[in-house]
Amino acid sequence: MDKLENTLRLLKHDNPERIGSYEHFWGETVPEWTKQGYPLNDDGTPKSIYEVFDYDLMPCGNWIHGYPKLTDERIEETDEWFIVKNGAGATMRFMKNASSTPEHLGFDIDCEEKWLEYKPYYLGFNEGRINKESILRDYENCKKLGSVSILENVSVFETLRSHIGDVNMCINLIEDPEWVEDLCDTYTNMLITHYDYVFKNILKPDAMWIYEDMGYNKGLLCSPRTMRASIYPYHKKLLDYFKSQGLMTFIHSCGNITEAIPDIIDSGFVCLNPMEVKAGCNLLDFVKKYGDKLAFCGGMDVRIMETNDKDLIRKEMEKLFGEMKRLGAMWFFATDHSVSPRVNYDTYRYILDNYYELRNY
After folding, report:
1. CB of 294 within 8 A of CB of 331?
2. In 137-222, which ranges are E strands?
3. Is residue 131 helix, strand or coil?
4. Which residues are within 8 A (CB) of 204 and not within 5 positions of it... i.e. 6 or more apart?
5. Is domain 3-67+127-358 given the CATH code 3.20.20.210 in the classification?
6. Measuring CA to CA, which residue among 30, 7, 52, 60 is closest to residue 333?
7. Dihedral (C-alpha) 123, 208, 136, 192: value to the nearest 10 degrees?
8. Which stretches of the chain are DSSP H helices?
9. Mean pLDDT of the chain
């Protein structure tokens, strides 16, 4: 089977030939690996991970621009960090030399009145939200590699966090949910409008991928009841549209999202990523409970990979692959979050060699 047929069979639970593959990396990992033999282009830049590692899935093109206004303002900068006020009026500090969650410094949108000032920017179609050249360039590279094309974006939970902040979000989902839900509905409608243009005028991918970090190491950031009232209906609205276009959707959600899985399924997602072991997720338990309804992408404890102990890594991979096959799990092999530079390049090549040996069902 080629990559597309095998991937679709995994997502449809339809007798795939082998376990799939995909991966995320911290931004500093590949630059560090260039000192360890990672291949370079003729101009000295690192080759694409999708070219070097031959994954099944490949993102294609820029996301739909998700802020009300299309411009950011960089307001302060040092050698170590910079501060940006984004198109939703949120001020955040980003580190320059390390991948990390940005520090939340301030948010213009903290009540319904402020939201209504920004809402008009979301209404209607704005071609500036779409980078057609980037989408077509990446799609062409994807098809040259024979990979499965995915388009990526965030949904409403991540949008709330980047627009109004975690504290404002949590307080207003309880005290004044109507305007927060209006933001969610308006943003979802904006995505649907712009993806409809992409699908009709640029290309239609093989699948969709949504990032939505709803958890932390103790559980969900909001209660399941609150999520069902104010978040999941907009997941379902977006996914109902994707399904109407014949597209299946992956969800990436960091942290311990155990309590969210039934609602993830009800919303229409077909594959769950990354299932962080260190946050309390248990891939095998998830497969036993939900393996007839979900495919899985991830779940390999990156901390074991970071030991660079090949015997330990091989033992863990044999155990994990053996159990996933025994359970009949539909699985894309990947870490439980992202590959850090603490994993040596030689170690990662060894891991992929083991994947190729173990991957056939």
Report:
1. no
2. 148-154, 207-211, 215-216, 219-220
3. coil
4. 198, 245, 246, 247
5. yes
6. 7
7. -20
8. 3-12, 29-33, 49-53, 112-118, 132-144, 156-163, 166-175, 177-201, 224-230, 232-244, 261-267, 283-290, 302-306, 310-326, 345-358
9. 96
Q: In whole angstroms, what is the distance from residue 90 CA to residue 114 CA?
A: 12
Strands 249-252 and 219-220: unpaired
**Model confidence, pTM:** 0.96
Structure tokens given for 158: 């991540």
C-beta separation of 335 from 300 below 8 A: yes
Q: Which pair of structure tokens corresponds to residue 294?
A: 């979900």
The 10 Å Cβ neighbour count of residue 318 is: 13
**Residues shown for the chain:** 361
Q: What is the pLDDT of residues 39-61, one digit of tens each?
A: 999 999 999 999 999 999 999 98
Which pair of tokens denotes residue 280? Answer: 């309390």
Per domain, the residue ranges of the chain are 3-67+127-358
Structure-token pair, residue 231: 């978040």
- In single-letter form, the type of residue at position 240 comes to D
The model's pLDDT over 134-168, given as tens digits with 9 standing for 90+, comes to 999 999 999 999 999 999 999 999 999 999 999 99
Half-sphere exposure of 126 (CA within 13 A, CB side): 17
